[in-house]
Amino acid sequence: MIELPGLITDPAVLAGISHDEAEWAPVGRPAAALRAQSTVDVQRAVRVCAEQRVPVVPRGAGTGLSGGANATDGCLVLDLSRMREIVEIDTENLLAVVQPGVVNDDLKKAVAEHGLWYPPDPASAPWSTIGGNVATNAGGLCCLKYGVTRDYVLGMRVVMGGPAGDYGTEVSLGRRTTKGVAGYDLTGLFVGAEGTFGVITEITLRLRPAPTIAARTVVGAFHSLVDAGRAVALCTRRGLQPAALELLDRTCMEAVEEWKQLGIEPGTAAMLLARVDTPGDAEATALAEAFTEAGAAWAERSTDAVEAEALFAARRLAYPALERLGPVLTEDVCVPRSAVHLMLARIEETAARHQVRIATIAHAGDGNLHPLLLTPPGDDVARLAAQAAFDDILADALELGGTVTGEHGVGLLKRAGMERELGPEVTAVQRALKRTLDPLNLFNPTKVVGEL
Amino acid sequence: MIELPGLITDPAVLAGISHDEAEWAPVGRPAAALRAQSTVDVQRAVRVCAEQRVPVVPRGAGTGLSGGANATDGCLVLDLSRMREIVEIDTENLLAVVQPGVVNDDLKKAVAEHGLWYPPDPASAPWSTIGGNVATNAGGLCCLKYGVTRDYVLGMRVVMGGPAGDYGTEVSLGRRTTKGVAGYDLTGLFVGAEGTFGVITEITLRLRPAPTIAARTVVGAFHSLVDAGRAVALCTRRGLQPAALELLDRTCMEAVEEWKQLGIEPGTAAMLLARVDTPGDAEATALAEAFTEAGAAWAERSTDAVEAEALFAARRLAYPALERLGPVLTEDVCVPRSAVHLMLARIEETAARHQVRIATIAHAGDGNLHPLLLTPPGDDVARLAAQAAFDDILADALELGGTVTGEHGVGLLKRAGMERELGPEVTAVQRALKRTLDPLNLFNPTKVVGEL
């Protein structure tokens, strides 16, 4: 029996905060949940759970796509979304200190008022929390040029146990300086660890000066998906560095068009959208040229900020447009950039082979593809076919020198894929780190390195 | 008795490869040394050393400044400088695969032929190896804008033991893709671990397109060191992002002038040198304005590439100019950028209090200061005073919210400072990782987390 003030045991409430947004990831039945208001709440909960050997599953907004925040049987769900204070914005040193429950877009807005910018922009930015972004090392659109979440985390406070002391001990990792090499990079190790080493209670983030130049958009329409992939390779080879380089395939565009009637031409197999934030015309021109040379039916550039945003609308609408059609199983492979067109071709083959409808959104400039497997609601045969296609996509990505997860994390859905990618020796090293840092296997057990 | 083909036991040769360039760090007597030619050599050496419990001290060019490559008594010095093959330059994916002994500048030249750029630029770049750069997470001048070594390491191959298997097992960490979150970030953990987890045998590095714009230099001369520090803070606050922002104090400039007669005006207390690599004049103008507003006696901008380099000459010559005067104990603190002027003032006070001559070079834009403690050769009293000053500088950096090492690493010289900075809990976590990954304490023992 867990005894803590404010403990939630109402089954309906528990059900609502027992899972993230991953389709088909297993969800256990938690013993209880707690909405922590402070570090002291987190410490007390961890202490009590350690005594009773109750697993602790930390969560933020629950927007994850790999089951990393799903409850395990008998666990305490530790909801951090109410710890949402922006503790400090340091304009002199371009950094912010935040609690884990601060929503990404709220932080962006708060720092923008000081002429600063927090770049990481996962698609979930309007809802997802910084704690969750850090736990999964979230990517997004602008990481092509500006890096992923890890590149912005200078330090953090974590409630942990094991070598740090009794479970419930809070430690401070990292620093407030731009550089520093005093000891092993624990901050970097805890970023992307999906809450399996401890509970993040505070994060120190690097900021950038706000961009001073309005972004422009370059759009290219392609008659073939593979040509679009080739255009991406050409941009990379020419050293072009747009702030984003996104790809939408035909299924995405049809779903958007059906819903919102943006006037996307039928017959377009793929669209590339580049965002340019350098001064002058040179970069936009070079991108449009590369698109055309790779076989684009047409390539267009925005003339003002409103048009730039309008041209990006299809990208933002793609995911919700597809979700209207039924459950979406979101893949997240990343391949070397030169292999994007090969991976796209394989995804088309996989879709045909398994008779599964697959729509692909890609952070193409990074080689990070999100094939979205669409199934009619309640159709078990289609679901099995989609799961087989999911496995084939992972195998193809590995064969092309890629990874099974570019930015969504391992959670529950990618455990087998991760082991296949890393091999037994490196998997054993991963497990050894988990045992060392969390000897009771208290924090988010079964995730990442958890046994299948 | 170690038995390996090619073993070096000649005391004179051993003495030459038993230490790095750190002044006053303790140097042990190795049992032998081996110049590895291949991964197989490394694996065999590690296997034999593990059987006989002979510590393995890996080294590259030995340009380190913290004693990280210094021999420990009875160890095998494993010299990797002959493993200097550039295995691959992948122009399609902007990456290179190299052996650890490749010299930084050699890699820069090789990738430049393909229109590519490897940014990390420690001052040792003409001699230091990529393996050493990775082991220490080397910084440099351009990390202000382009990041440190860690930001360029995508993956590596490492000969290790412990959870990976028998000592001598080679594992592959990381990836070739730009993004990836499959498991804990072992690559990041091994970068900066100073060879205490294993021996790096191959590294996969991210590259950038070669810069297309010639760099320009903006120089500001200040009558007061503290004004120069304020100029740095002003540049940061205004969101200026030069590719480098370096500071030289009076002692540096006098040493350079005495040696090379560049025509630096006497009476200048500090000089700031900024490198600008964005198109147009805006950034250089804004930097010059910030220098002037902060109280610069004058601020000048280069008009062509030759002049830009000439203006930077004083920075490049400072260290060798000072070394002519006697042993140089190189400090490496990093403070929040807003505290640079406070740290500079404290260094001046420390120099006066201990009667030690201190010259300060700083990557000022990063808050990373290198106070260089100068002592007449053979003067033991001066040496004790310098060591006391060294400790005071570390304490001051910590008091200002900084770190005891910005880019040189812990090695032997900063072990006590690191413990003071991290505190007992985090130090215990560091030690636990070392015990897990190297249970025999075979790899570079006594360094970083090694007991004092």
UniProtKB/TrEMBL annotation, chains A, B:
Q: In its keyword annotation, does this UniProt entry include Oxidoreductase?
A: yes
Name any cofactors this protein relies on.
Answer: FAD
UniProt-listed Pfam families: FAD-oxidase_C, FAD_binding_4
Provide this UniProt record's keywords sorted from A to Z: FAD, Flavoprotein, Oxidoreductase
The FAD-binding PCMH-type domain, residue ranges:
26-210
Q: Which domain of life is it from?
A: Bacteria
Q: Which residues form a coiled coil?
A: none
Oxidoreductase listed as a keyword = yes
PANTHER family from the xrefs?
Answer: GLYCOLATE OXIDASE SUBUNIT GLCD
Identification of the protein by name: FAD-linked oxidase C-terminal domain-containing protein
Q: Which organism is it from?
A: Allokutzneria multivorans
